[in-house]
Design a protein that fits this description.
Strand content: 15-25%
Mean pLDDT: 93
CATH class of the largest domain: Alpha Beta
CATH architecture of the largest domain: 3-Layer(aba) Sandwich
Shape: globular
Low-confidence stretches: none
Largest sheet: 8 strands, mixed
Length: 402
């Protein structure tokens, strides 16, 4: 292991591991691993809780976690909608305030890791680091600006794609000027390399998101009582791109046809009120709300089939939760998750936005659960286990090939 480094991580909108039971996500797991290897880690973020749309604090605040990771929260305002001018301004204020604080700091890091997007933060990190000779790792989390088309109605997608093409030079320059590129997805990293025009593959790596559910007690399935319906679960954020309204429509189709299947949609987000309006009486599906780590474990133990729905190409946290739990999957996402499910025979895939197709895919997996469970049991832990993934990520940051 390399001697101790000072590492700054710049990532907003990830749930902070402040409360007992709060689920760790990518930066939380990476920061904990780096601190455990003797590095001084400072995680910069805003005071705004992206998922809950509330404030952690009303002014700048610094907290040291039990792991030794220092969380530096910078106040940059709030926003109500994920797609809004207010959020864009929040990002710009956050990046500007970070740069101002970094310039005043008496401490200089040995390495900066910044998530892409926030685009403005990547730009400020590179501008700060370049004259000081500090290497910058850009962790590519989605395909900005192409992701804007995911939010557009089908009729407008071609027009939106034309518009976002104007931003390609800007995005490409930031990706090209990164000293190193990492991502949680092979497809996303390939997109970033293509947009940047880079050819230095040795400086680019994929580290899957993984899950903390791989740690501690094994997620052992609890069999359903005889005659009970097949239990189907979605676990995650209820945002626009998650296609959760199609799940609700699917639940209605299954109920109307008398199919013995019950769906639970666990999480919260902007589509929650729409889902409540579609629950019906009696309820066609369950809406237990957001779940902490213990509650997520409990739900996955009593789940027979996991849902991985969405209109976009993504590799979300819940995919790795499902792998850790050994659950058969029905997937409507495009890209790497779909390819993984199909290649490993973990379940069925179907188009997004098609309730009838989703219902049929669920029926097909439910009719052959032992076969799909056996396939899921063969997934290598290195594909989802927190310890394996983030140890490898930390070693990459420590050695950083020339």
């Amino acid at each position: 292991m390399k001697s101790s480094m000072k590492i700054w991580i710049l990532k907003d909108s990830e749930q902070l591991p402040l409360a007992p039971g709060a689920k760790q996500m990518r930066v939380g797991m990476l920061a904990e691993t780096l601190a455990g290897r003797g590095h001084a880690v400072r995680w910069y973020c805003s005071t705004f809780h992206h998922r809950a749309k509330t404030l952690y604090a009303e002014a700048d605040k610094e907290i040291t976690l039990p792991t030794g990771v220092v969380v530096q929260m910078l106040h940059a305002g709030t926003y109500r909608s994920n797609l809004s001018l207010a959020r864009i301004l929040h990002h710009r204020r956050l990046a500007k305030r970070w740069r101002e604080q970094a310039e005043r700091s008496t401490e200089t890091p040995d390495l900066i890791l910044v998530a892409y997007p926030i685009i403005e933060w990547v730009r400020e990190a590179q501008a700060y680091a370049r004259p000081r000779g500090i290497p910058v790792v850009v962790d590519v989390r989605d395909q900005w600006p192409d992701t804007f088309a995911d939010y557009a109605p089908p009729a407008l997608k071609p027009l939106v794609r034309l518009g976002v093409a104007l931003l390609y030079p800007y995005a490409g320059r930031m990706l090209r000027e990164a000293d190193y590129l990492t991502s949680m997805s092979t497809n996303v990293l390939g997109w970033a390399i293509q947009k940047s025009g880079r050819s230095d593959g040795d400086r680019c790596r994929v580290f899957y998101l993984g899950t903390e559910l791989s740690e501690g007690e094994e997620i052992t399935r609890v069999p359903a009582p005889p005659g009970a319906p097949v239990r189907v679960s979605f676990l995650g954020s209820l945002g626009h791109t998650a296609d959760v309204l199609t799940i609700a429509e699917t639940a209605k189709l299954l109920a109307d046809s008398g199919t013995p299947i019950h769906i639970t949609i666990a999480g919260d987000g902007e589509m929650m009120e729409n889902l409540r309006a579609l629950q019906g009486d009696p309820e066609r599906f369950s809406l237990p709300g957001w779940m902490d780590t213990a509650s997520a474990r409990a739900l996955l133990r009593i789940t027979d089939i996991a849902l991985l729905t969405g209109h976009n190409e993504a590799m979300p946290n819940k995919f790795f939760d499902y792998l850790a739990a050994g659950l058969p999957i029905v997937c409507s996402l495009r890209g790497e998750c779909r390819e993984y499910v199909e290649a490993h025979g973990l379940g069925r895939t179907c188009p997004s936005g098609d309730a009838a197709a989703l219902a049929e895919a669920i029926r097909m997996v439910a009719a052959d659960l032992p076969r799909y469970r056996a396939a899921c049991a063969k997934v290598p832990p290195a594909h989802y286990a927190k310890r394996a993934i983030y140890t490898a990520f930390a070693e990459f940051l420590e050695t950083r090939p020339a």
